């Protein structure tokens, strides 16, 4: 399987910073699934992970997408602001937004000047000074936890979960809000013992407002085929209602709010 995801990303990202631009994959104007209220959702290009079930594998390569200036994005958000209501705003999703974290901080500052709420949907793989700076201007974090067990995390994403857990710990230390998201994949992330471990790990976090269980689906398979990549979960079906209920029952023992998306 070919993965060109972060080859040469250093230069590309440096160039983006000079240009005050983001490398964007696509935009959803009236999103209702990625954060509170009605939102402008910007899916950025590039990701370090290579999740077995990625529904948008065409976002993984840092070389794809198109450049969009911060001012263009802010203008779009201002135009849509009347529809945001009390809770809506802008969500940056991906791909993985943290690959462009310095630029996102600029963007979030600009959005705040316009009174627009900011949400970051991230895998939490990078936790450094620039990430911490970005988190200061991030009203809500939606942190994707792929697996609490590092071996399984590696199997699912090819990389470790250590930084993701450090990212969560840092966000907790700031006292600012966070949602967790967890994709339930039969045979991969639905093991009862690990759901308990997940709950146990986060049970004392005060910043976590809720956890969303997202049922695995195969809607992105055709994109894997188009890229010429082998889809290893070909024979894995979406979780049954009973399995979703069981996961939800377990997580309710640890989190104040559990939602199945
Ligand atoms: S973190 Fe998200 S965008 Fe990146 S490979 Fe995984 S599912 Fe795809």
UniProtKB/TrEMBL annotation:
Database matches in SUPFAM superfamilies: Radical SAM enzymes
Domain of life: Bacteria
Needed cofactors: [4Fe-4S] cluster
InterPro entries: Aldolase_TIM (IPR013785), Organic_radical-activating (IPR034457), Organic_radical_activase (IPR012839), PFL1_activating (IPR012838), Radical_activat_CS (IPR001989), rSAM (IPR007197), rSAM_sf (IPR058240)
PROSITE patterns: RADICAL_ACTIVATING, RADICAL_SAM
Keyword Cell cycle listed: no
GO MF terms held by the record: [formate-C-acetyltransferase]-activating enzyme activity; lyase activity
Catalytic activity: glycyl-[formate C-acetyltransferase] + reduced [flavodoxin] + S-adenosyl-L-methionine = glycin-2-yl radical-[formate C-acetyltransferase] + semiquinone [flavodoxin] + 5'-deoxyadenosine + L-methionine + H(+)
Ranges where the Radical SAM core domain occurs: 33-256
Subcellular location, record wording: Cytoplasm
Pfam families per the UniProt record, alphabetical: Radical_SAM (PF04055)
Keyword Metal-binding (UniProt): yes
Gene3D superfamilies: Aldolase class I
Cofactor: record remark: Binds 1 [4Fe-4S] cluster. The cluster is coordinated with 3 cysteines and an exchangeable S-adenosyl-L-methionine.
PANTHER family the UniProt entry points to: PYRUVATE FORMATE-LYASE 1-ACTIVATING ENZYME, PYRUVATE FORMATE-LYASE-ACTIVATING ENZYME
Family recorded in the similarity comment: Belongs to the organic radical-activating enzymes family.
Protein name: Pyruvate formate-lyase-activating enzyme
Species this protein is from: Salegentibacter maritimus
Gene: pflA
């Amino acid at each position: 399987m070919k993965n060109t995801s972060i080859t040469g990303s250093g230069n590309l990202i440096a160039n983006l910073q000079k240009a005050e631009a983001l490398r964007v994959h696509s935009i959803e104007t009236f999103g209702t699934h990625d954060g509170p209220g009605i939102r402008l959702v910007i899916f950025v290009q590039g990701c370090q992970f290579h999740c077995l079930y990625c529904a948008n594998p065409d976002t993984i390569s840092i070389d794809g997408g198109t450049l969009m200036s911060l001012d263009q994005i802010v203008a779009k958000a201002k135009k849509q602001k009347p529809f945001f209501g009390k809770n809506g705003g802008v969500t940056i999703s991906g791909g993985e937004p943290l690959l462009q974290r310095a630029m996102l901080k600029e963007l979030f500052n600009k959005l705040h000047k316009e009174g627009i709420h900011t949400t970051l949907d991230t895998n939490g793989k990078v936790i450094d000074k620039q990430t911490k700076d970005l988190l200061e201007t991030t009203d809500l974090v939606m942190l994707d936890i792929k697996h609490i067990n590092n071996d399984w995390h590696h199997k699912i994403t090819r990389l470790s979960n250590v930084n993701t857990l450090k990212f969560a710990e840092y966000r907790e230390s700031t006292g600012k809000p966070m949602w967790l998201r967890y994709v339930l994949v039969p045979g991969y992330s639905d093991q009862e013992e690990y759901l308990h471990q997940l709950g146990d790990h986060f049970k004392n976090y005060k910043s976590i407002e809720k956890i969303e269980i997202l049922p695995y689906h195969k809607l992105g398979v055709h994109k894997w085929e188009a890229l010429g990549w082998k889809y290893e979960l070909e024979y894995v079906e979406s979780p049954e209602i009973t399995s979703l209920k069981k996961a939800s029952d377990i997580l309710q023992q640890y989190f104040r709010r559990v939602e199945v998306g």
